[in-house]
Specification:
The complex is a heterodimer of chains A (about 230) and B (about 400).
Chain A lengths: L8 E12 L5 E12 L3 E5 L6 H8 L7 E6 L2 E2 L5 H11 E4 L11 H12 L4 H14 L15 H13 L5 E5 L7 H18 L2 E5 L3 H5 L3 E6 L2 E5 L1
Parallel strand pairs in A: 3-8, 3-9, 6-7, 7-8
Antiparallel strand pairs in A: 1-2, 1-4, 4-5, 9-10
Chain B lengths: L1 H13 L1 H38 L4 E4 L9 H5 L20 H8 L5 E15 L2 E10 L1 H7 L2 H4 E3 L4 H4 L3 E5 H7 L6 E6 L4 E10 L4 H6 E5 H8 L7 E6 L5 H12 L3 E3 H4 L1 H38 L2 H10 L3 H35 L2 E2 L7 E2 L6 H28 L2 H8 L1
Helix pairs in contact in B: 1-15, 2-13, 2-15, 2-16, 13-16, 14-17, 15-16
The chains are: A alpha/beta (about 230), B alpha+beta (about 400).
């Protein structure tokens, strides 16, 4: 997974439509086609309620399309059952949300180790080393034994990034990752993202309503009323 | 599995307040269930003991339920007899010791022979009717509480004095006799015997204390004018509820009328049934209420973790793993609560047992408590089961929910 193949899209949506509700059906996204290449950093923008987060959750297999399919490295994954999708999430996808969503009872280190231990690829000692290195690479070497409540907002978000990177995912999905941060911390997060894309060839898909932030990615996709209206 | 366990343990250990509240909730339920079960069954057993111990569990007497069949009845089916006078027989059980030897093997309990004689006590110029019971001291202590009911003097004194007699305390005060006095007994067959009062007994049942006198078996036999007389064998069984079955077995074996305590107290037995029903209802209700309390607390704790469930799922934990984590948490809290509850229940029982009841008619008694592993097991089982269900249902609901809904709800 560390050396992604260069040819073909890393993650792809084909004609994806998502409708929720039985009594009053609401269309979240309609007929979306989207293809993201290795080493691409893209932004999904759009007004509130446009369906940009729904799009991200569909890409992240947290939600299942009503029609169409999601493919990772050419393999259709949206039709898998819950357990298999969980396995794909664990191994190939990393999530970052607007709120850090760290488990409050665990230290930064333990939070980062959780996905590694669930995957079971490394032993306890290796997990600890890897988590330490990840936190250090994000400038949190001195904070690894603090609980989330002892960290600042920016630090928490960086721990969340470390956790998303824990299992060396192919794709990182970020839902308004800077929505709760001051401008200095936002800047830091963005620089980390840039570095990840450039150095490791991972793809990052970031939902944001901040157009200045979006402008610094490789490609912007604008979603309005559940449809892609403009892509650069 | 180890990861699930560690996550669950971390949750339980770091959320101290919640864990304590949960554990205490479970502990209260278990503790009070145990206490109530102990009180109910204790008082029930006390009631049974009072009822059962007033009489021997089984009395085999020298009577028969029906007159013996006439040989002619066996030969001619149409023959009927009326007003037939059966030949006089010597009173008493024939060959009592052979009969006792026949009954004893296969009987879980003990038995004692006795001879009852009606007699008149003549003392200080007054005659008073009494029932004189002849006993075997060693065997008697195994079937009745007489040894503990002798207040002044002791049961053994019967053997040391010549013609010793123990009087019911009310009988003694009625005739004005004290220990050391010599009284005269006159039996129905005309035997006269001088006896020395060696003790006073107190059973707590007024009727007995006013009429009962106890002597050695051989003294009673002399009084009855019939050596070797035994007209009742009293049996104490280990399983009191089996008394009826044992009695009918003995009756079939020997032909003598055997009356179990159940038969003697048939009218009281329906009360018994009702009391049993009341006991089970009360204990059941308390277990139910306690299990609801447990359910409430555990399910609240799990509900508060809904967000964590969504996070774990988004990280790639499966529904099953997430469910297991919360099930384990519920189990840990339930288990710890049960252990504390057992301690609490035991301590409460001990405290209740020190409560004293003073009554002018009885001796000081303590609150009767029953200590039974069944109470602890049942209360623990119900608490654990409701903890598991209380952990399982909300965890299942939360783990099935789309994490998106929960994550969105939080932001």
């Amino acid at each position: 997974m560390t050396e992604p193949r260069a040819n073909g899209p890393i993650i792809e949506m084909r004609n994806v439509t998502r409708i929720i509700g039985d009594a009053i059906p609401t269309t979240l996204v309609r007929n979306i086609g989207l293809s993201i290449a290795h080493g691409e950093f893209i932004a999904i923008t759009g007004p509130s309620g446009s369906g940009k987060s729904s799009l991200l959750y569909l890409l992240g297999l947290l939600d299942v399309p009503t029609e169409g399919e999601v493919l990772i490295e050419g393999e259709p994954v949206s039709g898998l059952d819950e357990t298999e999708r969980a396995a794909v999430r664990l191994e190939t996808l990393g999530f970052i949300f607007q709120f850090h969503f760290l488990l409050p009872e665990f230290t930064a280190l333990q939070n980062v180790m959780l996905p590694m231990r669930a995957l079971g690829r490394w032993n306890e000692e290796e997990c600890r080393d890897r988590a330490h290195r990840l936190l250090a690479s994000l400038g949190l070497a001195d904070h690894s034994h603090k609980r989330p409540e002892q960290l600042s907002g920016g630090q928490r978000q960086r721990v969340a990034i470390a956790r998303a990177l824990a299992n060396e995912p192919l794709v990182i999905l970020a839902d308004e990752p800077t929505g709760n941060l001051d401008s200095a911390s936002s800047e830091q997060v963005l620089r980390i993202f840039r570095r990840l894309v450039d150095e490791t060839g991972r793809a990052i898909i970031m939902v944001t309503h901040d157009l200045n932030l979006a402008a610094r990615t490789d490609r912007q996709v604008r979603v309005v009323d559940g449809q892609i209206v403009a892509a650069t | 599995m180890r990861l699930s366990f560690e996550i669950a343990l971390t949750h339980v250990l770091t959320r101290v307040r919640q864990t304590l509240v949960g554990m205490l909730g479970v502990a209260m339920g278990v503790g009070f269930s145990v206490l109530m079960a102990a009180i109910m069954e204790g008082s029930q057993n006390d009631f049974t003991r009072q009822l059962v111990d007033a009489l021997p569990h089984i009395t085999v007497s020298d009577e028969r339920r029906e007159p013996p069949r006439q040989p002619a009845e066996d030969v001619y089916s149409d023959v009927s007899y009326a007003g037939l006078r059966t030949p006089e027989t010597r009173p008493g059980i024939k060959n009592p010791f052979a009969l006792m030897d026949a009954i004893e093997p296969g009987l879980s309990g003990s038995l004692a022979p006795s001879a009852q004689v009606r007699a008149v006590i003549r003392f200080a110029g007054r005659d008073t009717a009494a029932v004189v019971t002849g006993i075997d001291i060693e065997r008697e202590t195994e079937v009745s509480k007489l040894a503990t009911q002798v207040r002044q003097g002791k049961l053994g004194d019967l053997a040391t004095a010549s013609n010793g007699i123990i009087l019911g305390d009310r009988l003694a005060s009625r005739i004005g006799a004290r220990i050391g006095n010599t009284i005269t007994l006159v039996s129905g067959v005309g035997q006269t015997l001088s006896c020395t009062v060696v003790g006073l007994s107190h059973t707590g049942i007024a009727q007995n204390d006013e009429t009962q006198a106890t002597v050695l078996l051989k003294t009673a036999q002399i009084l009855a004018g019939q050596t070797g007389l035994v007209n009742a064998i009293r049996i104490r069984v280990d399983e009191i509820m089996q008394a009826r079955a044992i009695a009918s077995r003995i009756e079939a074996q020997t032909g003598y009328k055997s009356v179990s305590w159940q038969e003697a107290n048939e009218d009281l037995l329906s009360t018994f049934e009702i009391r049993n029903f009341v006991m089970y209802t009360v204990v059941g209700a308390i277990l139910l209420v306690a299990s609801f309390g447990t359910y409430n607390i555990i399910s609240t704790i799990t509900h508060e973790k809904t967000r964590d469930i969504a996070i774990l799922k988004s990280l790639g934990f499966t529904e099953g793993t997430v469910r297991r984590i919360f099930l384990l948490e519920a189990l840990m809290i339930g288990l710890a609560g049960t252990l504390i509850g057992w301690g609490l229940g035991y301590a409460l029982c001990q405290a209740f047992e020190t409560i004293e009841f003073k009554s002018p008619f009885m001796d000081v008694t303590h609150m009767p408590m029953e200590y039974s592993p069944l109470h602890y097991g049942l209360a623990g089982l119900v608490a654990l089961a409701s903890s598991v269900i209380a952990g399982f249902l909300p965890a299942r609901k939360a783990s099935r929910a789309n994490p998106v809904d929960i994550i969105r709800g939080a932001s």
